[in-house]
């Protein structure tokens, strides 16, 4: 097995770049703020601090925080988003206009504040996360200077926020801020007061960063859950969960396990661990069942073994993050806890065994009541969805109208839908939590929810989130998974902690526009969002140009300009824009570099440009050989020929006896040739009129 040392280093470089807190767009953003201070109800931009910068496919997003005397005002932010061509295309404001100017010098120390907080929530045993920050706080009767202490510890599920008056030491607020999966669609209440145990407080040890040795591994997992893959119903013979923590093996459930490849597992001196460049197993909450390290890279457990949930959660979270970062090309890794920046920690058996799960502070914890949450891919992808929301916004996740709950449901459904377990006529086609819910444990949720926004809002974040997940899946059904996933993630990255579903819809569509989706795709989004009750503004006219084009002059050392309309993309409200270009189609150019302007007209006109580089004439053989590729090789049904071909160039396929079997004109620079009728063997592809040949094998 090949060890992977380089990937971890590349990931860390990618992570640090994509989350740099400086931007050459800051000056332009501040100039825009100054021009719009009255509309934004600001005095000036002098009390704004750039706190987070994100660069990705849809452009660059800057987040400014409101400050008083150098101290941040809690839960405030101005988001300014730039498209890839440098235009400000989206803004979102969450400022406190009524905050008072106060002294920002605390009268008690941070250490004393933590001691008060620890006593209030009963901190004891291993502390897995603790953070203390000073804020100007205006969420109560008056503006105060406060310490905000957030603590997670193994003795008590959740992530506990204590708001403490930084002058008097008075506890102003205590609550669990972890985002829980919920039960029967609602939040699960946790008692605030906790008896202090006899255990002393100590902090979780963090491994020193070093060069990691990864190897490929394997695991047995559910894809995405046993009922869906079996096309079964909860309660069918063998398809019922053991009571409590029974987790009984049945032949039916074990048969639904699938053997999957784990691209990375950690190998330290022959001990294998569920740890990759993206994800790592930890014991974060009780019960403590260990880390399931072993002497083999094959994590093959049956369902009755606790290691099954560990491997299942590891596979699904790692798979999701690889899909985002490597397939979609969107930078998104854990960035809210510096102790393990770039890596998501997960505990497959926490919540003190309760039937719940949660995300907080860069970690995922899964409970074990009724159906173990770590056995259902929907639960895993949903909880990870909260993490994605948190990381993309630099910690500004919003639960207004259940936005993050709906986002988690969408992310899970987008994944499980591609497995094609159910047909559109099956009720379970739209189920969320098909194994964990829709049974005697709890009712689950759905992505064909009939309520519309805003009249259908109930005030329950889990219920209301279904409006958001449902409309996203309706878009998914039309434009496909990858396009919808990209727009969803990039749009979500523009939102802030007070964004509602209405503004999130605008952000998602704007991300699609900034990434130059086709006009038909943007119109689909507009239509689906509008039908779901969101108010969508008119789509501004836009045209997207191709990248610079390099071509070769013909044998007369001239080049006839073709139409570049098919390479350009005009976006408008009605998709009726007319595209024209300069130089005009048919213009004759000598070798050189020329600016090309593409114009879209629909009432008004907009344009974009690129460079056309005409290189001197090549011989016929040089034309053919330039960038020439033939693939796949071996081939079974077709081969693809790509290169810079002369118009009308022909390819001929010969067998080893020299018999010509296929002849085809190469009309574009990438052509498919059907070889399905050829017998198995070796063939030669010859480019007519040249000495260039390529061999390939037909299976």
Topology:
Blueprint: H1 6-18, H2 26-35, H3 37-40, E1 48-56, E2 59-68, E3 71-72, E4 77-82, E5 88-94, H4 110-121, E6 125-137, E7 144-153, E8 156-165, E9 171-176, E10 179-180, E11 201-203, E12 214-222, H5 226-230, H6 251-255, E13 257-268, E14 271-273, E15 279-281, E16 298-299, H7 306-327, E17 344-347, E18 357-360, E19 363-366, H8 377-392, H9 403-417, E20 431-432, E21 445-446, H10 461-479, H11 481-492, H12 501-514, H13 519-531, E22 542-544, E23 549-552, E24 559-560, E25 569-571, E26 578-582, E27 588-589, E28 592-602, E29 604-615, H14 620-625, E30 629-631, E31 638-642, E32 650-654, E33 660-665, E34 670-674, E35 681-687, E36 693-698
Parallel strand pairs: 6-11, 12-16, 15-17, 17-19, 23-29
Antiparallel strand pairs: 1-2, 2-3, 2-4, 4-5, 6-7, 7-8, 8-9, 10-18, 12-13, 13-14, 18-19, 20-21, 22-25, 24-27, 26-28, 28-29, 30-31, 31-34, 32-33, 32-35, 35-36
Helix pairs in contact: 7-8, 8-9, 9-10, 10-11, 10-13, 11-12, 12-13
- Biggest beta sheet attributes: 5 strands, antiparallel
CATH topology of one domain: Nuclear Transport Factor 2, Chain: A
Helix count equals 14
Number of strands: 36
CATH class of one domain: Alpha Beta
* Morphology: globular
- The SS-based structural class is alpha+beta
Report the end-to-end length measured between terminal Cα atoms: 28 Å
Average pLDDT over all residues: 91
Show unreliable segments. 1-20, 183-194
Query: How helical, in percent, are the residues?
Result: 10-25%
Radius of gyration: 29 Å
Query: Can you tell me the CATH architecture of one domain?
Result: Roll
Q: What amount of the residues lies in strands?
A: 25-35%
